[in-house]
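Subgroup meeting minutes
Present: P.N., E.W., G.H.
Scribe: E.W.

1. P.N. recapped why we're keeping a running log of single-chain structure predictions: easier to compare across weeks, and new members can see raw inputs and outputs side by side.
2. G.H. added today's entry (305 aa).
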Amino acid sequence: MLPPHVRLLCLSATVPNVDEFAAWVGRVRRAPVWVTGTVKRPVPLGHGVWFGGESYAFGAETRWDADGYAAAKLAWRRLTAAPDTKKEAKAARPTGRGGPPAGPNARGGGARGRGGGLGARGGAAAAAVSRAIAHSAARPDRGPRSDAAHWRSLIAWLKARDLLPAVAFFFSKRKVDALAASLAGLDLNTAAEAAEARLFCARSLARLPPGDRALPQVGRVTALLARGVGVHHAGLLPIVKEVVEMLFCRGLVKFLACTETFAMGVNAPARAVAFAALRKHDGAGFRDLLPGEYTQVRGGERGWG
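Output recorded in log:
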């Protein structure tokens, strides 16, 4: 529907049938369309899984690392394996009741509460609790506390390797908000960056009516942005989403929890992308993530399978 004199430049990293698409555009526009491209990424793309507080690499670009995949499977089996004995099962309970009392007023734990592990066998009790936490983090039904610990450890790992800013994709707005609430105490910005983020939010949101500026959603998101944590999903006000996108592109949002909509048309300079799950609800039922969806969300050229 554009006027004939308007020229087009089309860019894509995920269109598989680029020649067919270009031919269609040429027929509609009645003009020649030239196709150029490359399968080489300027920045190598690695693939892996984060599990039990460790990262297991599956490969980079077109190379598949079978050893990394085998190591991840072995770690999963170890963390999800049932205890061999009743004694181990009792010691691995998240309540820590398998540990010895540390004092006359303690019930199954140390002076700091249940599972404190301050007695003679405190080291063994602490190890048992650690195994229980790791086991609960590996379960699909883990609670919000273990989820927060899981994501905090991943963020710390990424930060130590200079892989921030990072984007974490969820397939539920509720889960995005739940994670953001659990990371309320996380601070990834310096004092100068926090001040810059607050000033940008204040100036940008000043155009909202006073009633909208007082919405709980606005207050929660701006408080998170000052600490370098962002959220992005269809349930946010459009101007709030735009503020999040602009701060992320400025490098003032170090960790962003979002839904798939963030990957549609937003060019964000992320150094790492994480998937909270590889299954999604498509309106009819739950299914595995399709290869094209994975390619679109993780942000990069095709060529790795």
